[in-house]
Design brief:
The structure holds two protein chains of two kinds.
Chain A: E1 4-9, E2 12-17, E3 21-27, E4 31-37, E5 44-50, H1 53-69, E6 73-76, E7 83-88, E8 91-98, E9 101-108, H2 114-120, E10 122-123, E11 129-134, E12 137-142, E13 146-153, E14 156-162, E15 170-177, H3 179-183, H4 188-195, H5 197-201, E16 206-210, E17 213-218, E18 227-236, E19 241-250, H6 254-266, H7 269-273
Antiparallel strand pairs in A: 1-2, 2-10, 3-4, 4-5, 5-9, 6-7, 7-8, 8-9, 11-12, 13-14, 14-15, 15-19, 16-17, 17-18, 18-19
Chain B: H1 11-20, E1 22-25, E2 29-33, E3 39-46, H2 49-53, E4 58-65, H3 67-74, H4 82-93, H5 97-113, E5 117-120, H6 129-135
Antiparallel strand pairs in B: 1-5, 2-3, 3-4
Helix pairs in contact in B: 4-5
The chains are: A alpha+beta, B alpha+beta.
């Protein structure tokens, strides 16, 4: 196991020590917060807020002025435009303005330093697909789709996306921990047939092996407006988890669904989102 | 933004205190493996408020645990902190530390509510904890 890991979320990514895990996540691609923690140190947080470039630049100036009034040690980050670092006693804070987003990254003293985080921090807010990488999940999702649900329970993580409130299209991705205990000696296909309601409810579904995983497809019904469902599963041996991606989309989006499932199963998400 | 300036709650301190605590088995509770392989913890445990009002003092109770719970129970010998248990659980079962922390801490809390384990807080680890058990 490597001692570093990459997290990707809502159009940005950063690298952290392997001991640090996502502990809090809320918000969407426009504004939100994620926090990481290890067993000894307080949270390392990333907050982001979208808006007009001029408005965000004004906001950044105001926040920098506020920090100066508090007599915090304020320094411009070398090698990055519109980036300021503050030393606030037991924490460091970095404010970073990139295009239409303002990021605030703060971490505890004694953990990863601001320089380490900034060296690995990448912003891909203008990409067509956003990469979501956490807890073994590594999926590409269209940038315009909204994150509707986040569930980070021990043993089962799930993210759900939807293009808009009224859309019938859905994309869910997630992971189940302890794959060795879940699967035992069974294959992914046999396990899914026995345990997953989607597979059990569609005995006429078609299985295919693709890349490192398996792919289950249910053709749309005869009624106009029916959606096609597809489920991709693969076993992430490094994280000892089963990772899955489920698409439920009408016929008009079948090309997009195939592309997302293909990227997921062939492990080419990194190239698509970053 | 910059919410760190307004201060934080003491949740993080409570979490750190919890991780530094040392869980110790109740010596009156014993682990039994049934003929069908199920694992049972059985022992005299304290009664709840209502039962004490009715005049009882203690009762023989038992409950079943799975192999993951058994791993945690077997390591509550007074020589490992909760943090060390969490790290060990994560390594043993190849799960990340956050999942291991939630699983171990919630299981220990459940054991503590049933008086099956107690937490030693604020003292150094017992060097002779395991040795004392061997002698008995």
């Amino acid at each position: 196991m490597t001692n570093r890991q990459v997290f990707a979320w809502a159009g940005f990514s950063l690298e952290l020590p392997a001991d640090w895990n996502l502990s809090v996540a809320h918000g969407d691609t426009d504004a939100g917060t994620i926090a990481f923690a290890d067993l000894r140190l307080g949270p390392l947080e990333v907050r982001w807020q979208s808006g007009g470039q001029a408005g965000l630049a004004r906001r950044l100036r105001r926040l920098v002025g506020k920090m100066r009034r508090l007599r915090a040690k304020v320094t411009a980050v070398a090698g990055r435009e519109s980036a300021w670092e503050f030393d606030h006693g037991d924490r460091w804070i970095v404010l970073l303005h990139i295009a239409r987003r303002l990021y605030e990254i703060s971490g505890p003293a004694g953990g990863p330093t601001a320089a380490e985080i900034l060296a690995s921090f990448t912003d891909a807010q203008n990409a067509e697909l956003y990469r979501w990488r956490v807890y073994g999940i590594d999926a590409a999702v269209p940038a315009k789709w909204q994150l509707k649900k986040i569930s980070l329970l021990p043993g089962a993580s799930r993210l759900e996306f939807q293009p808009g409130w009224l859309s019938r299209s859905r994309l869910q991705t997630g992971s189940w921990s302890m794959a060795d205990r879940l699967l035992g000696d069974a294959s992914l296909e046999a396990w899914a047939t026995a345990k997953l309601p989607l597979v059990a409810a569609h005995p006429g579904g078609r299985w295919e092996s693709r890349g490192a995983g398996v792919f289950f497809c249910v053709a749309p019904g005869r009624w106009p407006g029916n959606t096609a469902q597809a489920l991709a599963l693969w076993r992430n041996r490094g994280n000892n988890c089963i990772v899955w991606l489920h698409t439920n989309m009408p016929r008009g989006r079948s090309v997009l669904a195939k592309r997302l499932l293909g990227l997921f199963l062939e492990g080419r998400v990194a190239g698509a989102g970053q | 933004m910059l919410q760190w300036l307004s201060g934080r709650s003491n949740n993080e301190q409570q979490r750190q205190d919890m991780l530094r605590a040392i869980p110790v088995q109740n010596p009156r509770v014993e682990r039994t493996v049934l003929a069908d392989g199920r694992l049972i913890l059985r022992g005299q445990t304290r009664l709840n408020g209502w039962q004490r009002l009715m005049g009882g003092r203690s009762a023989l109770r038992q409950f079943e645990i799975d192999t993951l719970g058994d791993w945690v129970w077997r390591h509550c010998q007074g020589d490992l902190t909760v943090e060390e248990l969490v790290r060990g659980f994560g390594l043993e079962h190849a799960v990340n530390l956050r999942e291991a922390e939630i699983a171990v801490v919630s299981f220990l809390n459940m054991l503590a509510k049933r008086n099956v384990v107690a937490f030693v807080v604020g003292r150094r680890k017992s060097v002779g904890g395991r040795r004392r058990r061997k002698r008995s």
